[in-house]
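chain below, 115 aa
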Amino acid sequence: MTATKTEFDPFDPTGMLKGVRDANMTAMSKMMVDFVNTEAYAESTGAMLDAWLTSSGPLRKALESSMTQALAQLNLPSRDEVAKIAERMTNIEMRLDDIEAKLDETLSKNKGAPA
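prediction:
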C-alpha cells in the first residue's frame, strides 16, 4: 500500500505537480457536481434531449424505410417478416403439442381397453 505524503519532499521532482493535480481534480469534481445538481442544468439537458428525440424521429423512419427497401432488393427478410415467421412457428409448435397430447391420451385409453 502507498501512503499519502503530506509534507514536501525535495527529492521528488513530480511531488508538487501531483499535489497540484490532485487539488485541481478535487476542485473540478466539486464544481461539476454542484453544476450538474442544479435545476437549470436538468432543464437544459431535458430540452436538448427532447429536441434530439424530436429531430431523430423522421431520420429513423427514413432509415427504416430505406433499409426495408434494400433488404427487399437483396431478397432478405425484414424484421417484421422474421417476427411473423416466428409467430407462425410458435403457433405450429403449440398445435403439434396439442396433437401429441391427444395422441398420448388416445393411446393410453386404447391400452386399457380390452381387445
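The radius of gyration is 34 Å. The mean pLDDT is 89.
thats it, cya
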